[in-house]
Amino acid sequence: MMRLPKFSYRTPRTIAEAVKIVADAGPEAQFVAGGTDLYPNMKRRQQTPKTVISVMRLPELNQVTGHGAQGLVIGASVTLTDIIENEIIKRDYPVIASAARTISTPILRNMGTIGGNLLLDTRCNYYDQNYEWRKGINFCLKKDGDVCWVAPGSSKCWAVQSSDLVPVMVAIGAKLRLVSTLGERMIDAAGFYNDDGIDYLKKRPDELLVDIRLPPTNGWRASYQKLRRRGAFDFPVLGVAAWIKLDGQAKNADGTSALPASSGRIEDAKLVLGGIAPSPIEVNDAANALIGHPLNDDQIQAAAEACYIKARPLDNTDFVYQWRKQKARQYTIRALEELR
Ligand SMILES: Cc1cc2nc3c(=O)[nH]c(=O)nc-3n(C[C@H](O)[C@H](O)[C@H](O)COP(=O)(O)OP(=O)(O)OC[C@H]3O[C@@H](n4cnc5c(N)ncnc54)[C@H](O)[C@@H]3O)c2cc1C
Ligand code: SF4
Predict the structure, then answer these.
(1) What's the CA-to-centroid distance between 147 and ligand 2, angstroms?
(2) Cα-to-centroid distance, 200 and ligand 1 (Å)
(3) Cβ neighbours, 10 Å, residue 124
(4) Which of 299, 307, 308 is nearest to 340 (CA)?
(5) pLDDT tens for residues 293-306?
(6) In the chain, pLDDT over 70 holds for what percent of residues?
(7) What is the DSSP letter of 4?
(8) Could you give the angle at which helices 94-101 and 165-172 cross, rounded to 10 degrees?
(9) Average pLDDT in the 95-116 region?
């Protein structure tokens, strides 16, 4: 049986108290929300904070406010189950509810939060193992070792960003609000992830993720397609998020699009690949293939080809990596066809 190491557990009731505790405790402290990522990592001795600070009793982090016409604010501690069941998210941001529904299992979604999902540790077959297993290969660059077993000549870790909501948040232009004792800052999801499996976030350890801000729906629509081994539950080994906005498009009262995408010209587009690299990958050539055209077969094929060319998965998660590259084409087609 794998046991948790010893740590002290704190349960602040205000944001000010939470950021003071983490600032006072220093680099040995870490926030926890549902714990579905952090606690298994602690049991495997991949992360070993001495002070663990729960964010679940901070009221501001447990709210969802706003709607599609004005934009939505989702508190970082809102659980994935609450995201899936929230009527406004289902109506105005259905891509978030449907992507959240693909994450892990119902029991884990009852505990796991949107904030924890966006801050998930990167994953790799040589890292997601217990301590003894990792010791058997003399560890690796990401934790306790000095070699990357995926790319032995590399000085960089290639562990994979494996959250389902990250590519979606990047595609729709979400912003993340971070607070510390030094103040507050807002950062675009698109610029939040580093292409480095060890230093994977542009967040300091003393910063608390308070909420996620979604832009008004304003006529855009988005979709997400996920490749995984087991349909019932599994991490993504490829995720494709697609976002399009049509030119001069008629809108419903709530800001959602009133026309099928095939009947308008695409004014703006984003295609984002997840689950294949340390950070989500925005494929500009795919967006350029769509912009200025209706969403027809030729444009979809061109965008899919651009995603295929850009996708370069490594041999450090599930499935043969060359096959996952092939799948980037097919899953892009699926994601765009969902928007027609
Ligand atoms: C069996 C299994 C299957 C899974 N399948 C999937 C899957 O298919 N797709 C997927 O995306 N994920 C999957 N996960 C990962 C995980 O369950 C989810 O990503 C979940 O949303 C994590 O949320 P959490 O609240 O439990 O995070 P936690 O474990 O509490 O935290 C994760 C990280 O975020 C930090 N953190 C959390 N909240 C804050 C905050 N407010 N401010 C600052 N730092 C914070 C923690 O310090 C930690 O580093 C799976 C996990 C398991 C165990
Ligand atoms: S990519 Fe290399 S350094 Fe990173 S976790 Fe995997 S084996 Fe370790």
Answers:
(1) 8
(2) 14
(3) 24
(4) 299
(5) 999 999 999 999 99
(6) 95
(7) P
(8) 170
(9) 98
Tell me the helix, strand and coil percentages in the chain, rounded to 5: 35, 25, 45
The verdict on the CB of residue 142 being under 6 Å from ligand 2 is: yes
The DSSP 8-state label assigned to residue 338 in this structure reads T
Listed in sequence order, the DSSP H helices in 86-233 are 87-92, 94-101, 106-111, 114-118, 131-136, 165-172
Rounded to an integer, what distance in angstroms lies between the CA atom of residue 111 and that of residue 81? 8
CB of 339 shorter than 6 A to ligand 1: no
Report whether residue 159 contacts ligand 2, using a CB cutoff of 6 Å: yes
CA dihedral 7, 234, 193, 77 (to 10 degrees): -50
How far is 304 from 337, CA to CA, in rounded Å?
11
Counting ligands in written order, the one closest to the CA of 112 is 1
Ligand with minimal distance to 159 CA: 2
Structure tokens at 106: 């119902």
Rounded CA-CA distance 79/33 in Å is: 9
pLDDT digits (tens, 9 = 90+) for 139-187: 999 999 999 999 999 999 999 999 999 999 999 999 999 999 999 999 9
Mean pLDDT of 321-337: 97
Structure tokens at 306: 């651009």
| CA pair distance 142, 158, nearest whole angstrom | 9
Over its C-alpha atoms, the chain yields an Rg (Å, rounded) of 20
Tell me the pLDDT band of 247, cut-offs 50, 70 and 90: confident
Atom of ligand 2 nearest to the CA of 140: 8
Predicted TM-score (pTM) of the model is 0.96
Cα 330 to ligand 1 centre (Å) = 28
127 C-beta closer than 6 A to ligand 2? yes
Tokens matching residue 196: 């480095």
